[in-house]
Amino acid sequence: MIAALLRRDLAQFFPFAGSGGAALPLLFFLAVAMLYPFAVGPDPTLLARTGGGVVWIAALLAAILPLDRLMARDIELGVFDQLRLRGVAEESAMAVRLFAHWLSFGPPLILAAFPAAALLNLEGQTFDLLLLGLLAGTPGLAAVGLMIAALTASLRAGAALAGLLLIPLSLPILIFGAGALARGDAASVGFAGAISLALVAIAPFAAGAAIRAGREG
Amino acid sequence: MLFRELSLSLGGGAALHITGANGVGKSSLLRLLAGLLRPYAGSVATDGAIALMDERPALDLNMPLGRALSFWSRIDGTQDDGEIAAQLALGDLLDVPVRYLSTGQRKRATMARVIGQRAQIWLLDEPLSGLDEASQGLVIGLVGEHTASGGIAVIASHQPFALEGLQTLAIEQFVPPLPDGEGIEGWGNGGAVPRDIAASNTPIQPPPQGGGDL
User: Fold this and answer.
1) Same domain membership, residue B158 and residue B64
2) For residues B173 and B6, what is the distance between their CA atoms, to the nearest angstrom?
């Protein structure tokens, strides 16, 4: 049952897996990395010093794009009601969705960081810290995104609000993930990872509660 | 409040038609029975798997109908969508993405999902809306088969439902009258005033032979 759920979720959200639009965050991320050198000029040292931060900002903005499709569509279709009738708890469905959302967003983004790093002249330790930071931070971004998407799904301006909410809530991950680049220390990446884990642990329960509350409304 | 002092009990093979005007609380009663809403007061007891059909098909709009249905049969651990789809005259549409289906075809596809679940208790919200006469006959016939084999069917509809042995429950009987002066000016009738939901004492008995062998 869990496998069937995961397969359906991945078919919906994985880039290039069929239904259109799932690859957009990835392309958006690469487009930002491509535009940045044009905007600030081709100075290699400037790019190397600031490029890591730009990659993080791009990752954050790319995390906003899938939010409007993440929950609202299935709530409208009544999928979670039907799952509930079959004894699937909202929390389980949300845990599966969180995993599927991260799989379709985290690893592709980390892969896309390779061409992005080449464009921004990021090498050596900076690049390693960037990859590690993204690996530690993207689960947290996915968890925050899932909670926000579940909470705002029934609101009329939900999509726009979700974007606005994601930015402040993902600030701790950004501070430690991108901060590791500025200071060049791996301990910050550990902090980003710890925050991510805490968010991942909370998200299925918060999102599940949001679905239940939406039914009563 | 939507309704109060409503009490009903259904055993295997029973079919109940819930009638009432739009907005009186038919769908809410079904969602209460399904356990998706909690009654403000009172309790609901059911024994057996529940299948719910409402206006939302829960079928992926981008997927071909066959794959959308087979997702649910994988979740339910049942098989043979082809036969059920054929019963509902959907056999030729299995390769068509759900978003291209017409209203009536979607309704029939939702019915196929309900049948495929092999649940003992069917809760059907407006199962005939949007269907032509031939399809209405199909659906009524399938509900008849379900109850004849020991299942329970609860149908909420303002349309007549021509099924033999159908009991009727008119929700309006249980809607409390508004005390004088409590209506809000400009809101028209009392129906638009927000209401809490109350249902009480609505046990649904299991069908005698389990009903899982449709």
Assistant:
1) no
2) 9
Among candidate residues B118, B141, B167, the one where a domain is terminated: B118
Task: Give the residue from chain A lying closest to B119, CA to CA.
Answer: A86
Range of the domain at B13: 1-49+120-214
**Coil, strand, or helix at residue B190?**
helix
Are B171 and B80 found together in one domain? no
Nearest Cα of chain B lies from the Cα of A159 at a distance, in angstroms, of 20
Please indicate, yes or no, whether residues B92 and B137 belong to a single structural domain of this protein. no
Provide CB contacts within 8 A for B88, sequence distance 6+: B108, B109, B111, B112, B115, B135, B138, B139, B142
- What residues 56-95 of chain A have any CB closer than 8 A to a CB of chain B? 76-79, 81-86, 88
Query: In this complex, is the C-beta atom of B196 within 8 Å of any C-beta atom belonging to chain A?
Result: no
Residue B52 near chain A (CB below 8 Å): yes
Question: Does residue A217 sit at the B interface (CB-CB below 8 Å)?
Answer: no
Total domains, chain B = 2
Distance CA B199, CA B170 (A): 14
Looking at the fold, whether B125 and B33 belong to one and the same domain comes out as yes
**Are residues B16 and B100 both part of a single domain?**
no
Interface ipTM above 0.90: no
pLDDT digits (tens, 9 = 90+) for A126-140: 999 999 999 999 999
Q: Which amino acid is at A107?
A: P
pLDDT tens, position by position, A17-48: 766 677 888 999 999 999 999 999 889 899 98
